[in-house]
Amino acid sequence: MTSRKFFSLFLLCALVPLAAAKLSLAMGWFSHGAVNKGYWLEREIELLPDADLHGAAWRLVYIAPENCAQSCEQALYGLQQLYTGLGRKQVNIQPLVIANNRPVALGKFSAIVWQSPENNLNKDVTDELHDQIVIVNRDGLALLRYPINSDAAHMEIITKDIRTDLLRLLNYDRKGT
């Protein structure tokens, strides 16, 4: 085989996959958000700006409504079950509820901590993330959000989705222990 023939075969083998990748992107055959189950936030939101860096690394934050109805209780139950199901990875997670008043139903869920909204947490943020569970990283930055549903079967699916995304994020975390 001559060097010219070898070089042309090499270029062909290199350019065909590149052309196929370019074509799939141009034609829209590639789905961009198929890996994550939650919704990435469109803008950067520091939900917990003064997060304790020596405590739990990641936080599962539920922005509770004023009165804790059935969807709120389903979210708290889901958070508790999710935290319990994490096993040894619990040390890296802290479930947290942000609400103006401590929800009465919170007494049933021992793992979840209540926190009142920070003074610097503006109303636009709480309105945008109202009645949703948010994954917050070590630096207090909100990453993924999950809308809550009052249906128990749907909430179970949401909890599984949160677990999938959270475990993926924990595996890629370079600051973790």
Report a brief summary of the structure.
By secondary structure, the chain is an alpha/beta fold.
The CATH topology of the largest domain corresponds to: Glutaredoxin
Query: Class by helix and strand content?
Result: alpha/beta
**CATH architectural name of the largest domain:** 3-Layer(aba) Sandwich
Q: Show unreliable segments.
A: none
Keywords: Signal
Protein name: Transmembrane cytochrome oxidase associated protein
Signal peptide: 1-26
Question: Can you offer a commentary on this structure?
Answer:
The protein has 177 residues and is an alpha/beta fold. It has helices spanning 3-27, 70-85, 123-128, 152-172; strands at residues 39-40, 58-63, 93-98, 113-115, 132-136, 142-147. The termini are far apart. The protein has a 6-stranded mixed β-sheet with strand order 1-6-5-2-3-4, covered by helices on one side. The longest helix has 25 residues, at 3-27. Helix 2 (70-85) packs across helix 4. This is Transmembrane cytochrome oxidase associated protein. It comes from Cellvibrio mixtus. Keywords: Signal.
